[in-house]
Write a structure and sequence with these properties.
The protein is an alpha+beta fold. Helix content is 27%, strand content 34%. The protein folds into two domains: 95 residues, no CATH class; 126 residues, Immunoglobulin-like (Sandwich), CATH 2.60.40. Strands 13-12-11-3-14 form a five-stranded antiparallel beta sheet. Strands 4, 6, 7, 9 and 10 form a five-stranded antiparallel beta sheet that branches. It has a two-stranded antiparallel sheet with strand order 1-2. The longest helix is centred in the middle third of the chain and has 40 residues. The radius of gyration is 33 Å and the shape is elongated. The two termini are 49 Å apart.
Length: 231
């Protein structure tokens, strides 16, 4: 039941009504300062029952209070309709989200984070690796490190890497953001490229009314994924 503040409805409680009557009517809601439409209707009827026969309530006042009740009833129906619409929209979003499974999802960037001189990240290789190189560049697009993919030969899919933050000369680099791309030959000797931040959508998770997309081994809010496309 929708509830409203009692301000503006003080006229529904007349001097002729007893405090016990008012308290009983309010108790139906569990709170003396939050009433619903049924409570206001009870108060109106109580007021009519206890009015002074020699000075009854005028018709304009009755019409005003009846109009207030009609407005409250309309607001209650509107709130119910909005709640139903919200539920339907959530179900629609959930249904559409499951259709993303199997598609490619992009985070819109290829930057990993180097923190405390260490970074663990994942790169997706759509085909089996025969040979290739993974390249790390700084924010100015300078190549700071290259990694031979010899240890990943014969593998495909999401592969995890760990970088110690050192450049090609062995110097420790500052913590920050670095871009990761890879160029490789697959088992058919076809030249392929890939990068951090692009993965196939493996599953959808729902938590507290929000949808999360699994890219690699991490779940991201669905709003963090900027693009979906067929592989």
């Amino acid at each position: 039941m929708a509830t409203v503040n009692t301000k503006g409805y003080e006229s529904l409680i007349t001097p002729g009504a007893t405090s016990s009557t008012t308290t009983t009517a309010a108790a139906a809601t569990g709170s003396s300062d939050t009433l619903g439409k049924d409570d206001f209707l009870k108060l109106l009827l109580t007021e009519l029952q206890h009015q002074d026969p020699t000075s009854p309530m005028d018709s304009d006042k009755i019409l005003t209070q009846t109009s207030q009740l009609a407005t409250l009833e309309s607001a209650t129906k509107t709130n119910t309709a909005l709640d139903n619409l919200s539920t339907q929209l959530k179900e629609s979003v959930s249904s559409n989200a499951t259709n993303l499974i199997g598609k490619m999802g992009s985070l819109g960037y290829n930057a990993i984070t180097l923190a405390d001189s260490k970074s663990t990240y994942e790169v997706y290789f759509p085909t089996e690796i025969k040979s290739g190189t993974l390249t790390i560049t700084d924010k100015d697009k300078n190549v700071v490190q290259t990694i031979d993919l010899k240890d990943a030969v014969g593998k495909s899919g999401v592969i995890s890497f760990t970088w110690d933050g050192k450049d090609k000369n062995g110097a420790q680099l500052k913590d920050g953001y670095y871009s990761v791309t890879a160029a490789y030959l697959d088992k058919n000797n076809d030249q392929k490229t890939t990068q951090f931040g692009v993965y196939p959508v493996e599953s959808i998770r729902y938590e507290n009314g929000a949808s999360y997309v699994k890219l690699g081994s991490t779940y991201y809010p669905i709003s963090d994924v900027v693009e979906y496309y067929q592989p």
